[in-house]
Write a structure and sequence with these properties.
- It is a single chain.
- By secondary structure, this protein is α+β, with helices and mostly antiparallel strands.
- The protein has one domain: Electron Transport, Fmn-binding Protein, Chain A (Pnp Oxidase, Chain A), CATH 2.30.110.10.
- It is built from five helices and ten strands, in the order E-H-E-E-E-E-H-E-H-H-E-E-E-H-E.
- Strands 1, 2, 3, 4, 5, 6, 9 and 10 form an eight-stranded antiparallel sheet that branches.
- Strand 2 and strand 3 form a beta hairpin.
- The longest helix has 9 residues.
- The chain is globular.
């Protein structure tokens, strides 16, 4: 587990591929109790003068309560060989499975948050803002119908990026 702390400006790669195509894990909780979930939606940029990441978690996801109860969380990005683990973490609930045990991922604590040793990049965030999406705020009924007609809305979390690590 040789992670090197990086400055945000040192990051390379295409965020559209890393977030939307390659996927990542959102993990919140403590060493004693945490959950992780696969995500493929998110935004990285500057908010309130700080590097930030916006992620969204549906209220019915097991990870939701961990996001609500904890101030820090991680975003872990992986090489392609971990795609089956990400697939598992995105289709199975932590209520029913120990995702780390089932996938072989190794959790550890970094900057007060849970991450995974197998990640190639870890972004640690501190929540700064959280808000539920609202049906009446959608300007396109088509978008709402496509993504929320049968699933609950997401809660959005804006997290200040407090540290970034990459595997050597």
């Amino acid at each position: 587990m040789n992670f090197v702390k990086k400055e945000i400006g040192e990051l390379s790669g295409n965020p559209f591929n890393q977030i939307g195509k390659d996927w990542f894990l959102i993990t919140a909780g403590t060493e004693e109790s945490y959950n992780t979930m696969t995500a493929s939606w998110g935004f990285m940029g500057v908010m309130w003068g700080a590097p930030s990441f916006i992620c969204a978690v549906r209220t019915n996801r097991h990870t939701f309560s961990f996001m609500e109860e904890n101030d820090v969380y991680t975003l872990c990005f992986f090489d392609e060989k971990y795609r089956p683990a990400l697939q598992f973490c995105g289709t199975k609930s932590g209520r029913d499975f120990d995702k780390a045990k089932e996938t072989g991922l190794t959790p550890f604590v970094i900057d007060g948050a849970i991450a995974f040793e197998e990640a190639s990049r870890i972004i640690v965030c501190r929540k700064r803002y959280a808000e539920m999406m609202k049906q009446e705020a959608f300007t396109s009924a088509e978008t709402y119908d496509k993504w929320y007609s049968s699933d609950p809305l997401h809660k959005q979390y804006i997290g200040e990026i407090i540290s970034v690590y990459e595997k050597e």
